[in-house]
Specification:
Structural class: mainly alpha
CATH topology of the largest domain: Four Helix Bundle (Hemerythrin (Met), subunit A)
CATH architecture of the largest domain: Up-down Bundle
Largest sheet: none
Number of domains: 2
CATH class of the largest domain: Mainly Alpha
Shape: rod-shaped
Strand content: under 5%
């Protein structure tokens, strides 16, 4: 397998690992964002609205009692304002509590209970114009049915606040758990990237760097005069081919050196004969 192919495999593995890490971290981040959005956009507004509803219901009761005693117009107006705030708060709570079925059901039940309580206990007092009507309103407010309506309203309001507390606790725990998972995912991703870098470094050294170092060391040994040292043809195809070409060149040089040595030895062996023939020829020429 050539260097290019191996590098392509390594690059593909790196990209795949990065995609996996990105998907892992992205999914955890989306979960944290979703949990945080629930807390910010649903739980906290619902808790504030429920608190405002409880205060406004108390204002409705207090202003109705004050109106029954004083018949003050200001008390009547304040009662109407508080009643409108309660009704609008209950409608708003039903909208913001869509993410939790228990809270939505509790808010709808509280709305029904409040309307019944207002109709039974508060409305007769606020609509009374004569002394007899006010007396009947006081009797209605002190009746067993009114007491039951008041107790039911308090119980449903307390149940709603308890459910909201549980919802807030659960949403907060979900957010904290999501953050913990996100931290774990980031830690795993960092460890995975570190391991990937180490594996990549090891692979490049084993597949590319080390074969080049081996070939360079063999060539240096041959260049220093050890022409009998064989050049190793290991590693990727490109490096192995280069080493093989160098080895072929070394062998050709060895053959040429051997031929040159053989020719010189042959010349040394024939040297005396050639010298004698030369002297004989020179003697004949001189004669």
């Amino acid at each position: 397998m050539g260097v290019r192919r191996r590098l392509q495999i390594v690059l593909a593995v790196v990209l795949l690992a990065l995609v996996i890490f990105a998907v892992l971290v992205g999914s955890r981040l989306a979960l944290v964002s979703s949990s945080g959005s629930v807390v910010t956009n649903q739980v906290q507004p619902s808790v504030r609205t429920a608190s405002d509803i409880a205060l406004n219901i108390l204002d409705v009761d207090l202003t109705a009692s004050r109106y029954a005693l004083t018949q003050a117009v200001s008390a009547r107006n304040e009662n109407a304002v508080a009643d409108n705030l309660v009704r609008s708060g209950l409608r708003s709570l039903s909208g913001t509590a869509q993410g939790d079925e228990r809270t939505r059901q509790a808010s709808e039940k509280l709305e029904t209970t409040y309307l019944d309580w207002f109709t039974t206990v508060i409305s007769p007092t606020m609509s009374a114009t004569s002394a007899s009507q006010r007396a009947k309103a006081r009797e209605a407010a002190a009746s067993t049915a009114a007491a039951k309506q008041t107790d039911a309203l308090r119980a449903n309001l307390s149940a709603l606040q308890t459910i909201l507390y549980l919802w807030r606790t659960q949403a907060t725990d979900d957010t904290a758990r999501s953050l913990t998972i996100l931290k774990s995912a980031l830690a795993v991703s960092l460890i995975g990237i570190l391991l990937l870098v180490l594996v990549l470094r090891w692979g490049l050294r084993r597949w590319v760097t080390q074969p080049l170092i081996d070939v360079a060391a063999d060539l240096r040994q041959v260049a220093d005069g050890d022409t009998t040292h064989q050049i190793r043809t290991t590693g990727p195809a490109e490096i192995a081919q280069t080493a093989q070409d160098a080895e072929d060149m070394r062998r050709r040089l060895m053959r040429e050196i051997d031929e040159a040595i053989a020719a010189r030895e042959a010349l040394d062996q024939r040297g005396p004969v050639v010298a004698a023939l030369r002297r004989e020829l020179q003697g004949r020429v001189t004669a």
